[in-house]
Amino acid sequence: MKWEAQVFILSLIAQQLSPDDPYLSYFDVRCVYLEREHLTHFRGAQIVLLRPSMSFMLIQTPNPLTLRDALPDFSKTTHIFLPINDCRNPSVAEGGSHWSLLVVSVVDGVAFHYDSLHPSNKDEAIATTKKLGTLLNKELRFLDLPDSPQQENSSDCGVFVCVEMKHLLMKKLLLAHNKQMINMSMGGKSLDASRGRKEMLSVIEGFRREGERRRSRSSSPNKNSVKSPPRVD
Question: How many CB atoms lie within 10 A of CB 13?
């Protein structure tokens, strides 16, 4: 989790935050990036990329129905992406040691679980699926996918989640035609964690630079000045 902690510090999202707003996780960076750069081009897509904090709140809340006002409106949603963490203690900031990805097809009533250290987060994913089913008033079938790409160390789980999220969204769901059946398996897919890190750091750097530009504009002493109109001889 060392690299993930560094990204927590770096990931200021300029497009949605003012210069004084708090920093967010790299999952927030990935979610906002995918929403802004890709989902906005698919006007008809009813896909929700749930933030990690919302996913954690869902699993920790005894009665998920009490979260209706805090969570997005899922009434027209077709698919939901949820980062899953193994933290059991909500009082511990940035707790847990492993991330996995849960993708729920609301229209099909199926929850797909992708775990790069299978089956580490299976219990958490099942619990989240049950809570979400209660919230949606819909029975969800949990499908664990042991053929998901597996990491070779103890620090790549977050990168795997982000890369898988982008692949499943961009290469599968958004490219499918109406009523087309999609194979949601990641079996046989090779993930390059190093490349994924570089891509996310590039995205974060872009947001950081935009944040600096916004901060510079907001602190400019002439930002409210009115330019004189052009004059003629």
Answer: 21
pLDDT digits (tens, 9 = 90+) for 64-85: 999 999 999 999 999 999 999 9
Question: What global pTM score does this model have?
Answer: 0.77
Is 113 in the active site?
A: no
Distant-in-sequence, close-in-space partners of 121: CB < 8 Å, separation ≥ 6? 84, 85, 86, 98, 99, 100, 113, 115
Angle between helices 193-219 and 26-37 (to 10 degrees): 80
Q: Mark whether 157 is an active-site residue.
A: yes
Write the single-letter amino acid at 210. Answer: E
| Residue that has been written with the tokens 């035609």 in this structure | 177
Give the closest residue to 148 by CA, choosing from 181, 188, 111: 188
**φ, ψ (nearest 5 deg) of residue 102:** -115, 125
Size of the chain in residues? 233
Strands (E), 23-126: 47-49, 79-85, 99-105, 110-114
Answer yes or no: 147 catalytic: no
Q: Give the integer Cα–Cα distance in Å for 27 and 37.
A: 15
Active-site hit among 28, 31, 98, 113: 98
Angle between helices 193-219 and 2-10 (to 10 degrees): 20
Q: Can you tell me whether residue 161 is helix, strand or coil?
A: helix
Of the residues 28, 31, 113, 115, only one is catalytic, namely 115
Please, which residues bridge with residue 24 across strands? none
Residue 40: other Cβ atoms inside 10 A: 10
If you average pLDDT over residues 101-122, what whole number do you get? Answer: 96
Of 31, 87, 157, 162, the active-site residue reads: 157
